[in-house]
Amino acid sequence: MTKCTKCAPERIPLKLLPERYREAVRSVIEQILSHYRSTIAFAVIGSVAEGTYGVHSDVDLLWIMRGRLPRRYWRIIELPKDPRVELVALPKRSIEEHFQHATTMAHAIQRSIVLYDPCGYLASLKQRELGLPDHEWMVHWFSHWHRFYRWGLEMLRRQRRHHRKYCRRGRKCYCDVDDTLARVAVNFAILLVECYGIVPTHKRALWRAFRTITRSQRWRRAFRMALRIHREERWIALNKAELIASLAKWLRRRL
Questions:
Q1: Which band of pLDDT confidence, cut at 50, 70 and 90, is reported for residue 10?
Q2: pTM (2 decimals)?
Q3: Which DSSP category does 113 fall into?
Q4: Residue 4 pLDDT more than 60?
Q5: Is 186 helix (H, G, I), strand (E, B) or coil?
Q6: How far apart are alpha carbons 136 and 121 in whole angstroms?
Q7: pLDDT at 3 (0 to 100)
Q8: In this structure, which CATH number among 3.30.300.30, 3.40.640.10, 3.30.70.260, 3.30.460.10 belongs to the domain 14-127?
Q9: pLDDT digits (tens, 9 = 90+) for 190-249
Q10: Of 66, 117, 138, 209, which cross-links 193 as Cys (Cβ 3.0–4.6 Å)?
């Protein structure tokens, strides 16, 4: 069977990306295309796509496929050593749901850099009109993260008990908790700024929007910390976790 040159990996327009990400992105795309014929498209979303990336920004590579998400795909795909490359894998059905509800992801896709789209699926998505995320999706997303919120608070309470029992004053404390509360705070903040009619599709946009809804230096400092920890650090020192937990509680009350 003759290979279609239109769909060949070498035709991927990597020059649209910053040079430091090109080879890593090419490697992932080529590996996926060689193993999964159900692949529909690839695109870069987030700060790199919108030209607001910084020195420490990661690149979010969206992979859209037919059917269900392949199980254990990470065992076949050798992800690049650069930790700033994040693979976001979504089946076509999920993409359609995102556009039906005009979610944050749908807005990010419309602002994306298309790298592989032989059937024109992403091109058609970019032509659709999007409003603000609808109420049904926002309620669903709040409920989803509220479960993690309760779980994160429970882990924090357990660590507090451990700290009081085993950590002595005057000695260095190594107590920490995982990043659940930071992820909760970031997603609660996304929902809150969307209530004000702003759809943030990357961290810098979210930070700018957050500053418009509160002048509190305490909450701004806590949120900046949560943004830095989100998807970058796995564990948080106990004192930082306490501050982020307070931020998450404040955001929950506002919602």
A1: very low
A2: 0.88
A3: E
A4: no
A5: helix
A6: 25
A7: 42
A8: 3.30.460.10
A9: 999 999 999 999 999 999 999 999 999 999 999 999 999 887 767 888 989 999 999 999
A10: 209
Helices 135-166 & 180-195, crossing angle to 10 degrees? 150
For residue 61, the one-letter residue type is L
State the average pLDDT for the chain. 89
Give long-range contacts, CB 8 A cutoff, 24+ apart: 101-104: 101/133, 101/134, 101/136, 101/137, 102/130, 102/131, 102/132, 102/133, 102/134, 102/137, 103/133, 103/137, 103/141, 104/133, 104/190, 104/194, 104/199, 104/200, 104/201
In the chain, where the domains are located? 14-127, 135-253
Tokens standing for 120? 């024109």
Using only C-alpha atoms, the chain has a radius of gyration, in whole angstroms, of 20
Which residues does 107 contact at the CB level (< 8 Å), separation at least 6? 130, 199, 201
